């Protein structure tokens, strides 16, 4: 879809923390994120936002050798659960039922904390844990929640053109289904 747009784009695949830092410093124009995390900047500036581009599930992840995967918030009560920083805003409604939450700056840090038994489980979105998937287990039939990715951009004329193109293209694709 984005390859057909009239503007020149360069896509970077970065760890989420680095992507957010680059976005907040103005080094990149847009990030792919869920809007609950990015609707307003620290300085109060509003950002532009695309329509939903994709849905992805959140699961509890545990080490493969730890037994049965967790399939609900109730099963995680009393456990120490790790959550990636910036996701705590979206996950707050679930996290309030958990005994102890440990925030980590990266998925890599969460995985290491799990290996060192500093946490019992990780609550995160599946795409963010993809690099560790073969060493983790999760209950694929029981997502804790789902979220939609949006393109979140700085409020510039160029980015507005990009998001109008994305909006038009996704509306065209919706009509085809």
From TrEMBL:
It comes from the Bacteria. It comes from Marinobacter nauticus (strain ATCC 700491 / DSM 11845 / VT8) (Marinobacter aquaeolei). This is Solute-binding protein family 3/N-terminal domain-containing protein.
